Inverse folding.
């Protein structure tokens, strides 16, 4: 097992996923499983890792099950907007803002201080897009709404001038008690162009066993994260033939809660504990 090409620095999620895979597969065999990073600067478009089980080689690609637009919007607000918390001088109350992150952050970032002071001067403690009596009538209400503020509320308690922002995320819905929501969500996700590209990487490996590992992004796919509570699915997902095993994993304090599926084995579930990633 040699790899002399310069390696691409592993992201924390890739490093942890590789440990999860190595630990779980090693526990199922008679000898330890070894992984080799394969996605290097000289191999753009290659899968992430080789998995070695003795003389047998398998391919592994690591990705994220996420609603990309939600992640992109949230990243924009953290970079260009006030984030989750800011302070405004001259206020007598603490404020809570519910924001639609699909809006550009610039207007709220530039005018937040002025708008909140104006509301307090008029004794207005709650307004925004959902304020039907003031919308299109009151200039600050209209301005807040045009900047993506669904609701701005003054709340009691120190410290005065602190402003907390909560971002509305359009989580996909999940039928309560449906044990197969994960299968349905996975089938749809695998049709995405990005994950079609993941399947193509695995196919280019040329080996018969190919693993696609998804970290479930709880921020934008809370529906899938919560569906883990329903237990092991009973329905098979529709999986591209270029993928042999699909892994879905949730981060835990000690490692990961893992659901795996293959056409031969069906669904399997494991709690995997790993050594902390340095």
């Amino acid at each position: 097992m040699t790899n002399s090409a310069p390696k691409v620095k592993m992201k924390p999620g890739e490093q942890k996923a590789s440990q999860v895979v190595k630990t779980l597969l090693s526990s199922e065999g008679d000898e330890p499983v070894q992984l080799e990073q394969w996605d290097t600067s000289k191999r753009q478009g290659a899968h992430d890792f080789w998995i070695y089980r003795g003389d047998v080689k398998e391919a592994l690609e690591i990705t994220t099950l996420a609603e990309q637009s939600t992640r992109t919007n949230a990243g924009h607000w953290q970079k260009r907007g006030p984030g989750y918390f800011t302070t405004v001088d001259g206020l007598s109350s603490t404020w809570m803002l519910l924001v639609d992150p699909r809006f550009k952050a610039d207007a709220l970032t530039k005018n937040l201080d002025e708008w909140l002071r104006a509301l307090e001067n008029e004794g207005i403690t709650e307004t925004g897009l959902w304020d039907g009596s003031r919308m299109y009538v009151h200039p600050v209400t209209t301005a807040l709404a045009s900047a993506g503020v669904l609701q701005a509320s003054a709340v009691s308690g120190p410290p005065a001038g602190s402003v907390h922002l909560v971002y509305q995320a359009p989580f996909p819905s999940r039928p309560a008690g449906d044990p197969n929501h994960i299968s349905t969500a996975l089938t749809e996700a695998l049709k995405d162009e990005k994950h079609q590209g993941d399947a193509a990487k695995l196919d280019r490996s040329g080996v018969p066993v190919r693993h696609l590992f998804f970290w479930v992004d709880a921020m934008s796919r809370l529906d899938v994260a919560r569906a883990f509570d329903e237990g092991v699915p009973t329905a098979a997902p529709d999986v591209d033939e270029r993928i042999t095993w699909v892994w879905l994993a949730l981060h835990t304090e000690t490692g990961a809660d893992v659901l795996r599926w293959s056409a031969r084995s069906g669904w399997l579930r494991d709690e995997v504990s790993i050594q902390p990633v340095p």
Summary: The domain at 12-67+172-255 is CATH 3.40.1350 (Trna Endonuclease; Chain: A, domain 1). Residues 203 and 242 are 5 Å apart (CA to CA). The chain has a mean pLDDT of 88.
